[in-house]
Amino acid sequence: MASDNRGTADLVDTRAPARLTQKWRALSPLQRRLAVAAAAIDTAAKTAAVIDLARRPADAVRGPKVAWAVALPVVNSAGLLPAAYFLFGRRR
């Protein structure tokens, strides 16, 4: 008879990290450098947007300041959300 796990082992796919590692290893050194550079630029843009948002009064922000504060660090937008904040989220 089968063990008494009752399918709990099927809840977690332990192969996913290995697949991600293999994909990273499959990248060329140039592709790896570009990926790291893109991540650094995205992080810098998000950090700059969050700092600007924290220093800016609520009446100088278009939309709810709390929504921007939650979305900027959480949403994975490849730099588009910080750009949208700087272009459209701030009142001049």
From TrEMBL:
Name this polypeptide is given: DUF5652 domain-containing protein
Record keywords, A-Z: Membrane, Transmembrane, Transmembrane helix
User: Where does the source fall among the domains of life?
Assistant: Bacteria
Q: Which organism is it from?
A: Flexivirga oryzae
Membrane spanning segments where? 66-88
